[in-house]
Amino acid sequence: MAGSTNSSLLERLGLPDDLRWLAEKYPRENWLTHANVHGVANMWLQRHDMFRELGGMLSGGIDDYREGRLAAPDFARWFTPRLNHFLGHLDGHHNVEDYQYFPVFAKAEPRLKRGFDILDADHHTIHDGLERNAEAANAFIRTLQESEDKQRLAADAYAAENSRLIAMLTRHLADEEDLIIPLILDRGDQVLGID
Fold it and tell me: What is the pTM of this model?
């Protein structure tokens, strides 16, 4: 299951049309002016923006190292805490969604249950990506005391793994927002029981 889900997450261009009826009713460009955006919807968007920002920082940091703008020791000191923060918070966020929010949302609007199943499957795929990312990062960090060639190969391997994770995450965050934010805007936190 993970292999087919993994490829679909990297290849899909958005949610299936039959799951977008609330997104069409509440277009993204109107979300921030909607009365129900305050509370959980706003928190959700801010959290996702944080993950986008951290992912971009990690990508930029590895690029800086690979281009010689950061020396290995400086890069390791900068990189390690940010990577740990990113991976840990992302995994925790997905657990809260899977076990607390998604069941409430699917119960509130059964027509979207398949969408929450898709998002849940994404989380498993992304979790596998998080593990691969951490393994590649650890392998890279271990080479920082070795030859430049070994460092370069390990940095390239990590950069490829990070790019893959960021691509999956970017698609997932957008699809999750397109499913969840319109539902919250439509019903409100109190009606959904998430306030």
Answer: 0.89
